[in-house]
Description:
Layout: H1 8-20, H2 23-30, H3 34-48, E1 53-56, E2 59-62, H4 64-94, E3 96-101, H5 103-110, H6 114-120, E4 125-130, E5 144-149, E6 156-162, E7 165-170, H7 172-175, H8 181-184, E8 189-192, H9 198-204, E9 214-218, H10 221-229, E10 234-238, H11 243-248, E11 252-253, E12 259-260, E13 264-270, H12 277-296
Parallel strand pairs: 3-4, 3-5, 8-9, 8-10
Antiparallel strand pairs: 1-2, 5-13, 6-13, 7-10, 7-11, 7-12
Helix pairs in contact: 1-2, 1-3, 1-4, 2-3
Amino acid sequence: MTLRADWLPALAAFEAAARHQNFAHAAEELHLTASAVSHHVRKLEERLGMPLFQRHARGVILTAEGRRLADAAGSALSDVEGTLQALRKGRDDDQRVRITTLHSLAHTWLLPRLQDFTTRHPGVRLMIDTEVTLTRFDDGGPDLGIRHGPGHWPGLTAHHVMDDALIPVADPATAAGVSCAADIAKLTLIGDHARQGWADWFRAAGLHGVQLNLGHSFSDSTDAMEAAARGLGVALSREKIVGPWFDSGRLRQLPGPVLPTRWRYHIVYPSHRPLRPVARLFVDWLLETSAGERQRR
Length: 297
C-alpha cells in the first residue's frame, strides 16, 4: 500500500487521538472539532480495512493494530519535528553573529551605537560576550572579537578600529578644586588593571617622583568610572568609554595632558576560516562607524 499525501491529515488526527486517548482533546490540540477528528480516523480505518480504536461510552482505546500504527506515526512525526527544528535553528544561526569584547567597551561605546546597525540590518542578531580573558576562536566559538591591544595576534586577522587616550576624571565637586595636574597628585587615585596607569600620566604631565595615593582598584573600567562619579577618587579613564558619564554630568575631565594609549582597538577574526557574510556586515559597519567619527572630529 502506497502512502499518499491525502493520508497525512488523517494520520495526524489519528496520532493526536492515540496520544490523548480522546477525540475531544485531540481536536483541541489540532484546532478541529471532535467530529472532524472522528471523521479522519474512520476514513483511515476504512482505507486500512481494520479498526484502530475500540469505542466505548467513556472514550476510546487503541486496538493492537492501532497501537502499532500509533507508535510508528508518533516516531515519524517526532523525526519530522526534529528536522524542522534543526532547519529553523540553522536558518536562525545564519543570521546570528557572536562577538567577544570587553564589558567597558560594549557598555559605553558599542551599545549606544547599535541602533544604527539594527536599523540597517534588522534581521541580524548579535550575541555579545563580555570578558577580560582572550577568547579562543575554535570551531563553535565567536565569529568576531573587539580587542584592545597591539594589533598582532597569532592566527587572527586584525583591522584597526580606533585609537584611544587616557584622561583624568572626577565628580563635579572634586573637579571644582583642581586647577592643575599637581592638584591631582594630592587626591585619592582610583586604580585599574591597565598596562598604562597613573605613573605614566604624571610623567607625561612633567611631574616626576610623585607618591601615588592609591585608593580602591577595579578590574573593570566601568566600575572605576562609577567609583569616581560617586566621589571615591580620581580615575584615569580611556576617552572612548567615559562618554556616558560626561553626558550625564556625573564626571568631568580634569586639567592635564591627554595621553595616547600604547594599545588600540581592533576587530579580529580567525585567519584560517572564511568570514561569514553576516559577520562581514558587522565588521564593515564597525569600521565605517569608527571612520566616520574620526572624520567628524
